[in-house]
Input
Amino acid sequence: MKSLTLAASLALAIGVAAPSLVSPNYAQASEPAMVNQQVTDALSNPLRKAANVERDQYRHPGETLSFFEIKPSDTLVELWPGGGWYAEILAPYLAKEGHYIAANFDANPPEGLEVPGYRIRLGKALDSWLQSHSDKLGQASSIPFDPPRLVSLGAPNSADAVLTFRNLHNWAKAGALEEVFASVYEVLKPGGTFGVVEHRANPGMDLSTGYMVQDEMIALAEKAGFTLVASSEVNANPKDSKDHPKGVWTLPPSLRLGEQDKAKYLAIGESDRMTLKFIKKPKA
Output
């Protein structure tokens, strides 16, 4: 049986017709946000790995965090930090006044539960990193997050911001995207920020490619109770044609084809990405 396209499968999930790519009325940032000194300091903190710093050219962390208006005093939850690329920036940034919480891969899943080995490995590595640098990271902590099995992100109305970077496709494949959005809504304070960066699809693309349709993600977030207040093209990449043999993982940093056409994909760079800022709108 042919796989459902991304548009068809998510339209079924959220109970709306598959949307077009016509953008709704919301503010679109025409220029990158100004990066404040505290964010700049976090970008150059000594806990960052050199290999991660090299990828700033693709991920624009200073402009992205400034666009989301993340404050040093925030209580912030990052969903599935993975290898800790953003954790190396966010945890030091929030160390003095705020609180960084990693909604991490479950490093100790129940016996008999089938879990990809890389998730356990990365989950343990991030927990260890947070513990080993606890003297520099303030209240930084970790909780297990494994939708749809584990979806709680903390006490209701306790977080100022929740951020997720290139994870929505994983939860969509697991059929858990609605539950994730509901959990984010619950943990955020009224008016709190939900920041999303995700690989951006063309119409009709399959879930297996790793790309997601921007308008569908907006519709799903709005169904959960969020209001889209702004979008940014800071993480856009017009070189990304999105028709690669191994989906988004054909591009760096994964480079799933190995040496085959490596120079071509390095020249394209990392994927074209949507950058969306939502706020929690209190439900009537």
